[in-house]
Design goal:
Elements lengths: L3 E6 L8 H17 L4 E7 L3 H6 L7 E6 L8 H15 L3 E5 L2 H13 L3 E6 L1 E5 L2 E8 L4 E5 L6 E5 L17 E2 L32 E5 L14 H15 L2 E4 L1 H5 L26 E7 L5 H4 L5 E8 L13 E4 L2 H13 L3
Parallel strand pairs: 1-2, 1-4, 2-3, 3-10, 4-9, 5-9, 11-12, 11-13, 13-14, 14-15
Antiparallel strand pairs: 6-7, 7-8
The structure holds flavin-adenine dinucleotide.
Flavin-adenine dinucleotide binds next to α6, α7, β14 and α8.
């Protein structure tokens, strides 16, 4: 009989990341399909009480925690030791963990330590003939594969955004403590600080409800035969500030910086969506001044509701790639949208 463990870590503030609730949401149906008597949750962190309370109502049969001040920060040696101890204590054959940056680094080593196997970027779980099947995409999201494995424990890192998050009120938790020996050698690596753009300047927001894509049209000559790059920059940044959308780009726009053309200074190749860019997951997407060519739109595979603003009624979006195409000047549209947002409408 399979037994399922959901392995989680706390964030710096002691709370669980959003992806943790998605892993918890995936565990219940999986355990039920397997006919398991329930599932376990294991949490590592410096102080796990708020996290334990947050998932107390999720229906887990066991709640295991590994606490130590050294588990406050992301570090391979301590994360791997704590995660391996939780896996062993649970006796689980299937381990589900959110694919956060922290776990993406530590969990493959954990699978090795516990004599198991690991698969990453899992987007779906199902049970057929009593066997667990996991799905993931290959070749930059071009092919979806379904895999199953015989060795146990089988550790599955779940891609954020692919599973329905469990939600429920915090409750009273009575976790079992799992002790982990933390040696000096393990804590030789220290986090001395985090260098990251200020939240307001961070334009890639995986948790945003909306993906806002800017295309090369924003820097092209407009009806008055002039470019309006500064206006474009202001309109886009104002919209991002008001909407908290995540910013995506076409390849043409981010490539311009290398060609010495006028550029949007806050845009980098990290923003590029498409065949040679990223494939983000957001419920909605809005493309502006972007033609909607196949190599770009292939990156919209996981965007559920798609809209585009383009002057060209024959652009790629009009050919079945968007749910709604507004044939309009994106400068005028975004100015009006920003005015509505500023007015709180
Ligand atoms: C192997 C390969 C891989 C590729 N990978 C990627 C990838 O990963 N991602 C990607 O994006 N591309 C990729 N491309 C490039 C892709 O084919 C397109 O060339 C690119 O997406 C075009 O970018 P764009 O739509 O921003 O620019 P353009 O094609 O120049 O389109 C600009 C659009 O802006 C519109 N416009 C201009 N002014 C306004 C206005 N005021 N209001 C509204 N609309 C306006 C125009 O009508 C036009 O449709 C790849 C190509 C190849 C060959």
């Amino acid at each position: 009989m399979e037994s399922v463990l959901v392995l989680l870590h706390t964030e710096a503030d002691g709370a669980l990341p959003k992806a943790a609730f998605e892993a918890v949401g995936a565990a219940g149906p999986l355990a039920a399909s397997l006919g398991s008597p329930g599932f376990a949750i294991g949490i590592l962190g410096a102080s796990t009480a708020p996290a334990s309370a947050a998932v107390a109502g999720a229906g887990a049969a066991r709640l295991l925690v590994a606490e130590h001040p050294a588990f406050a920060e992301s570090r391979y040696a301590t994360d791997a030791a704590a995660a391996a101890a939780l896996c062993r204590a649970s006796g689980a054959t299937i381990v589900l963990a959110p694919m956060t940056a922290r776990f993406a680094r530590a969990i493959p080593g954990v699978a090795h330590r516990i004599g198991g196997r690991v698969d990453t970027h899992i987007t779906g779980l199902s049970v057929a003939d009593g066997a667990v099947h996991a799905t993931r995409w290959f070749y930059r999201q071009r092919m979806e594969g379904t895999l199953t494995r015989a060795p146990r424990p089988w550790v599955l890192l779940l891609d954020p955004g692919a599973h329905q998050a469990w939600s429920g009120a915090p409750g009273a938790a009575a976790p079992e403590m799992v002790s982990v020996e933390v040696t000096d050698a393990m804590t030789r690596t220290r986090v001395v600080g985090v260098e990251a753009p200020a939240a307001a300047q961070q334009t890639i927001r995986p948790d945003a409800d909306l993906l806002f894509v800017a295309g090369a049209g924003w820097t092209k000559k407009q009806a008055d035969a002039q470019t309006h790059t500064q206006d474009a920059q202001t309109l886009i940044l104002d919209f991002l500030r008001a909407s908290h959308a995540s910013l995506g780009s076409s390849k043409s726009l981010v490539d311009q910086s290398g060609e010495g053309h006028a550029v949007l200074t806050f845009m980098s190749h990290m923003n590029q969506v498409g065949q040679t860019g990223s494939t983000p997951r957001h419920p909605k997407g809005l493309a502006t001044c972007c033609h909607g060519e196949e190599p770009h739109v292939v990156g919209w595979r996981f965007i559920t509701e798609r809209r585009a603003v383009n002057l060209d009624p024959n652009c790629g979006w009009a050919r079945g790639k968007a749910d709604v195409l507004y044939v309009a000047d994106a400068f005028a549209v975004m100015k009006a949208v920003n005015a509505l947002l500023a007015a709180g409408e």
